[in-house]
Automatic annotation (TrEMBL):
Name of the protein described by the UniProt record: Ribose transport system permease protein
Keywords, ordered alphabetically: Cell membrane, Membrane, Transmembrane, Transmembrane helix
Cellular compartments annotated: Cell membrane
Lineage: Bacteria, Pseudomonadati, Pseudomonadota, Alphaproteobacteria, Hyphomicrobiales
Main location: membrane
């Protein structure tokens, strides 16, 4: 006697159950850059001597930590339909003032708190200007970027701030169970942000505001408070990221964040978060950050010139974005 097979278990010829195949496809469409990141890692590990060594992986982990923390804040802001161009400059200013506080007080904790507070203060300025004064986020954060960068140079007289307590660099090199502590801190912040985004009312509000601000207002979502909170959180994340970089490098610098802005925006967008808001997530950003760090380090080991690296990274970004768009379009059509 034959038994009917449920639709979701129907087998394609020579393949897995259709339901399992569709579920796998949906997961891939949700994290489009994951296969690209895996392929890039495998290619570098097989062809570039030294890329897959423990020393290089440890270095990449320490580089990834501050970039991931900064990208967390940028992702949340972008999910709500906003943008923050002051991320890199905020990191520069926070690194300088945080390093100065650490140097003068001799306290690593006080210096890190000062750096995070500087980032939060910039976030408050952004929130007031964008939410209260209704300034355009792109224009305002561009102005803040220029101002914060200038303040970082004025405060440091254009030089790096070194002479930090020995405990700072010791903490930056510390490992726990073989994993750099800086990466563990970034991972903890990532998990907290992930829980807030997907397991809280505030997280649902973020997606609603980004998808349709007017509809969010009709659904009693406090749009202004959500936006203000996100810009403050984004600034705070930039301040924390700056201090993670200071602990890794052993100094603060007015140029620390010069390349961070492009890396953060690239990681968020390449990961699959829409610049128009309402679509994307932190897991996507994680894959984008990992890809950017691997490309940067791998091409550097190869010894390619800066412009050659830029061309290759640009092509990978285009390919990854095209893949994500194609997967999302196909998922929409199948839905």
């Amino acid at each position: 006697m034959s038994v009917a097979t449920p639709d979701h278990q129907t087998r394609a010829p020579g393949g897995p159950p259709a339901g399992q195949a569709r579920a796998a496809f949906d997961r891939l469409a949700g994290i489009p850059m994951l296969p690209v990141a895996v392929l890039v890692f495998a290619a570098f590990a097989l062809t570039v001597p030294g890329f897959g060594t423990v020393v290089n992986l440890d270095t990449m982990a320490r580089v990834l930590a501050p970039l991931l923390v900064a990208a967390i804040g940028a992702t949340l802001i972008m999910l709500a339909g906003g943008i923050d161009l002051s991320v890199g400059a905020t990191m520069s200013l926070a690194s300088v003032l945080g390093a100065m506080a650490m140097k003068e007080s001799g306290s690593v904790a006080l210096g890190c708190a000062a750096g995070a507070a500087v980032g939060a203060a910039v976030g408050v300025v952004n929130a007031v200007a964008i939410v209260r004064l209704r300034l355009t986020p792109f224009v305002h954060t561009l102005a803040v970027m220029l101002t914060a960068r200038a303040l970082a140079f004025l405060a440091s007289h254009g030089a790096s701030v070194g002479g930090l307590p020995p405990a700072a660099t010791a903490f930056g090199r510390l490992r726990l169970a073989g994993v750099p502590v800086l990466l563990l801190i970034a991972a903890a912040l990532f998990l907290v942000a992930l829980l807030v985004l997907h397991r809280s009312v505030f997280g649902r509000w973020i997606y609603l505001v980004g998808a349709n601000e007017r509809a969010a207002l009709f659904n009693a979502v406090p749009v202004d408070r959500v936006k203000a909170a996100l810009y403050v959180l984004g600034g705070t994340a930039a301040g924390i990221a700056a201090m993670l970089a200071v602990l890794r490098l052993g100094s603060g610098s007015p140029v620390l964040g010069d390349n961070i802005l492009l890396q953060v925006i690239a990681a968020v967008v390449v990961g699959g978060t829409s610049v128009f808001g309402g679509e994307g997530g932190l897991v996507r950003t994680l894959t984008g950050v990992a890809l950017i760090v691997m490309l940067d380090k791998g091409l550097d080991i190869i010894g390619l010139a800066f412009y050659d690296q830029a061309i290759i990274i640009g092509l990978v970004i285009l390919a990854g974005s095209a893949l994500g768009t194609a997967l999302q379009r196909r998922k929409t059509l199948r839905g």
